[in-house]
Amino acid sequence: MGTAEVNVVTGAFSHTGKYIAQRLLSMGERVRTLTGRPDRENLFSHQVEAFPFNFDKPRELMDSLRGAKTLYNTYWIRFACGQVTFDKAVENSKTIITAAEEAGIRRIVHISITNPSEDSPFPYFRGKTLVEKAITQSKLSYAIIRPTVIFGPEGILINNIAWLLRKFPIFATPGSGDYRIQPVFVEDVAEIAINSGHQDDNVILDAVGPETFTFNKLVRMIASQMNSQARIVHVRPGLALFLARLIGYAVKDVVITKDEIEGLMSNLLVSECQPTAPTSFSEWLGQNADKVGARYISGLERKYRD
Q1: Could you tell me which CATH number the domain at 6-150+182-207 has?
Q2: CATH top-level class for 153-181+211-303?
Q3: Pairing of strands 180-181, 213-214
């Protein structure tokens, strides 16, 4: 009987990485994780060994990767916070890639974003492109997965839209609301990632769900499932951002950023490719209506706070 393959999953205690780790464990494979929060509760107990990222200690980072064959990389930042900027996130990502090469990793499966561009005005999308470029120029076999908005029990955007619709009498939609969004289920992203990890060809593929909505339709659908009486109004993007910041002060979080609003309005969260994930957002929402938005999910809490 052969020894189970060792996989390293960055962020296995967070969101997408958690579902990748769960699926790998269910297949009988071994999992380690790299995390920026090694003090966080280990969701997998003794099944997953946790190591810090050690970006400033490349030798120790390499040692934590040694012996593994596949690296599933979900590391990124949603917004800059303190000294953790997008430029720093790109630098850290390159450090991971170099350490993976030196540790003898066979293949990297990297979670990126739809519609990345080196010419993008948005640091999030521009940085994602630079990381993709570093991967394709590395010695590693690779699969680059480009999801749109990931939904699921811990998905921030969808959950917090629902929370706002539950808690406030007015929901402010930036601009016309006619821009589109194409949600993809977190477990489908995990399955696509793992299937890609077990192959050898270098691939870049979008991870996108079967349904595309205008933002207006998405919000109305969520409101209907929540039985929300909130009045949905359209406001200038700047006013929407101001209102979000006011709420952010109350919940001690960054509810949404200027770049996130503009990226959404630029139709960057849809794909021109055929759907690659089967789970219907509308069906999932109907099945989970009592849970979605029941509590606020903090991006700062997930990423940075003890």
Answers
A1: 3.40.50.720
A2: alpha beta
A3: antiparallel
